[in-house]
Amino acid sequence: MHPPLFIRPLSEAERAQLRAGLHSADAFTLRRCQILLASAQGQGATGIARNLGCSKGTARNAIKAFHAEGLACLKEKSSRPHSARPFLTEQHLPALEDLLHHSPRLWGKPTSLWTLDLVAEVCHGKGWTPRQLTGEAIRVALKRLGIRWRRAKHWITSPDPAYARKKKRVTD
Question: 136-167: per-residue pLDDT in tens?
């Protein structure tokens, strides 16, 4: 069982800001203000949870957040895990762009057109990612890095001087 948890005594400015938060359009801010004002009136987490229709954990988390952050706890934080970080970062950008402008055959692949899954295989093989990513993860990483993914046949070029003439003949 958790010991009773209450917020510290509020200053008049803090109390006024919490009361103003009761009129917020943001549900998170509204709920936090309700919890903190109820705690300031001496209600415990169990009583707050019963009166507001939330869990005891929600009430305790709001009070702990107020102790740690003050009134900054009224704004909802990102739900992204702190440990989550992208595998392909800005340092890989030049090499990744260079990779996409060469044939997959240079890396021993049986095709001359890149697919997202093929890019994932090569990135893992080069040690850029700790595990092989999915094609979708590669698409998201490319987008985040500012690389547009398009079908290769529309933009691929060749060092062959007659490439443009040959390409034009195929498309006619």
Answer: 888 888 888 788 877 655 555 667 788 777 77
| Distance between CA atoms of residues 48 and 55, nearest Å | 9
Using alpha carbons, list the distances in angstroms from residue 81 to 49, 63, 93, 138.
Answer: 26, 21, 24, 20
Q: d(Cα 137, Cα 132) in Å, to the nearest integer?
A: 10
Cα Rg of the chain, angstroms: 28
- Joined together, the tokens standing for residue 92 give 């890989």
pTM surpassing 0.70? no
Distance CA 15, CA 142 (A): 47
- With a CB cutoff of 8 Å and minimum separation 6, the contacts of 152 are 113, 114
